[in-house]
Amino acid sequence: MSDADTRADTATADPAGSARPETEVCPGCGAVIVAVPGPASRVPGASASCAALFEVTVRGLREEAAQDVRTAALLQLATDAYAAQHLQDGEPAAAAVRLCLWLERGTDPLRAGELAGRVDDAAPRLHSRPARWTTTVADLAADLDVVDLPALVPSWADAVWADWGPAHPAVRAAADAVLAASR
C-alpha cells in the first residue's frame, strides 16, 4: 500500500482527524451511550454502558441513603424507574408495580421496597415493553449540570410510568392486590 493510499484511508476513516468514541444502544431503554469497556451488565435487559451510567448517576444518592430517609426513598424511586425501563419481555413487572404504588397509590418508595415479596408475587408478566421511552438515564445524566437529581428523578419516574400506559390496568390491579394483602 502506498503512502497516498494510507493517507486516503485515514482521511476516509476519520476526515476530521479526531477519534469518535464508540457507542452502543442499550437494548432496554434505547439510549445511545458511549461504550464502556468491561464485563457484561449485571442488569438483565441493560447494556453494560447503560448500567454503568446509572451507577455513576446515582452514586451520590447511594452514599447518602443510609443517613437520610428522603435520599433513600429517592434512590429507591430511581432504581425502580431504571428497572422498569430494563424489564425483559415476560419477566414479572415488579418495578412497574412499585412505580404505581409510589406515584398513584401514595406508597412511600421505601415501603414499596419492603413489600417486595408481595410485589414480586402479584406483578404481571408483561410481554411487550414501550417501543420508545420519553426519558432515559442518559437524559437524566445529561441534565445534571443544570438540574439537581432530586428534581430529575421524580419527573423521570413519572415519564417511565406514563410510557407504560398500555399496561396500566394490569399493573394497577397488581398494586391494589399488594396493598390489600398488606392490610
What's the SSE blueprint?
Elements: H1 3-13, E1 23-25, E2 32-34, H2 48-65, H3 69-85, H4 94-103, H5 109-114, H6 116-122, H7 137-143, H8 149-163, H9 168-181
Antiparallel strand pairs: 1-2
Helix pairs in contact: 2-3, 2-7, 3-4, 3-8, 4-9
Describe what you observe in this structure.
With 183 residues, this protein is mainly alpha-helical. 57% of the residues lie in helices and 3% in strands. The protein has one domain (18-181). A two-stranded antiparallel ribbon has the order 1-2. Strand 1 (23-25) and strand 2 form a beta hairpin. Helix 2 (48-65) crosses helix 7 and helix 4 crosses helix 9 (168-181). It is globular. Mean pLDDT is 86; it is low at 1-15.
Summarize this entry quickly.
The protein is mainly alpha-helical. The protein has helices spanning 3-13, 48-65, 69-85, 94-103, 109-114, 116-122, 137-143, 149-163, 168-181; strands at 23-25, 32-34.
What are the main properties of this structure?
about 180 residues, mainly alpha, DUF5946
Fraction in helix: 55-70%
Q: How would you write the strand order of the largest sheet? A: 1-2
Helix and strand element order: HEEHHHHHHHH
Number of domains: 1
Q: Supply the helix-strand structural class.
A: mainly alpha
> What global shape is seen?
globular
Question: Which regions have little confidence, pLDDT < 50, spanning 5+ residues?
Answer: 1-15
The biggest sheet amounts to:
2 strands, antiparallel
Strand content: under 5%
Distance between the termini: 77 Å
Average predicted local confidence, pLDDT = 86
